[in-house]
Amino acid sequence: MKMKKRLISIAMAAVMSVGSIPAAGALLDGFNNTRTYSDQFTDVPSTAWYYNSVKSAYELGTTAGMSASKFSPDQNLTTDQLTVFLARIHAAYHHNEIVEVQNPSSWTDKYYYYVEQYIDSSYRDSIFGGRDNEQQAENNRLQGSLAEKFSCWIALRKEHVALRKGNYRTIYCNDMMGVYVFLRSFGDDKVLVFLNTGTGSVTLTSVEVPQLQEKKIILSSCEGKLLAVL
User: Fold this and answer.
1) N- to C-terminal Cα distance for the chain?
2) Helix crossing, 109-118 with 79-94: angle to 10°?
3) Taking all residues of the chain, what is their mean pLDDT, rounded to a whole number?
């Protein structure tokens, strides 16, 4: 459970900072460009709001598109694709290699194998059956929750230009507690991103984050929040 919740935090950090990822404490240290995007996807025009996100995700190695020339941005996310994202995000963060498996029945087998090796040993059973009803329902809930979060984060990136191509500045970083705060800004659009990957709740005030002024932010374990700065 903790690993899954931490992975959600890592995924949020990647989505909210993709396109401008510098070193920002231990949480983002794993995300480094591994290749160059040269407008391979013909269905991702340079004028699209998500262009920079696709470009950065490709260069980070977390997506390869539907083919060498197609990304299919309007297609719904499948269970297989979600599993691929989980494996690639975790592998990029931990500098692991996703290896081929013997006698694969599908191109996705190596990603399921990776997730079972490093994230959840019963991942495939929890999705396709073989677990008790209560446990399977909980795993389905977590899977659905992650898919919903991805959709929510993408919608937020569409709403805030700062999250797509704004400048990036670390505001607060406490590696011991697993707490990170960074600011994305583009013109008048400024957004604070708060992440708590630790095991306990955290309260942040203007002492840690001057932009909060009289406000305070309370983060539960493995929780992330956004705050627009006026």
Assistant:
1) 36
2) 50
3) 76
SS (H, E, C) 57-108: HHHHCCCCCCCCCCCCCCCCCCHHHHHHHHHHHHHHHHCCCCCCCCCCCCCC
Three-state SS sequence of 20-56: CCCCCCHHHCCCCCCCCCCCCCCCCCCCCCCHHHHHH
Cα–Cα dist 27/193, whole Å: 13
Answer whether 80's CB lies under 8 Å from 110's CB.
no
Residues with Cβ < 8 Å from 52, sequence gap 6 or more?
A: 18, 19, 164, 165
Predicted model pTM = 0.52
Query: What is the pLDDT at residue 131?
Result: 46
In sequence order, what are the beta bridge partners of 223?
Answer: 196
Please report how many Cα atoms fall inside a 13 Å half-sphere around the Cα of residue 189, on the Cβ side.
15
| Triad 200, 203, 205: Cα angle to 5° | 160
Do residues 147 and 139 make contact, with C-beta atoms less than 8 angstroms apart? no
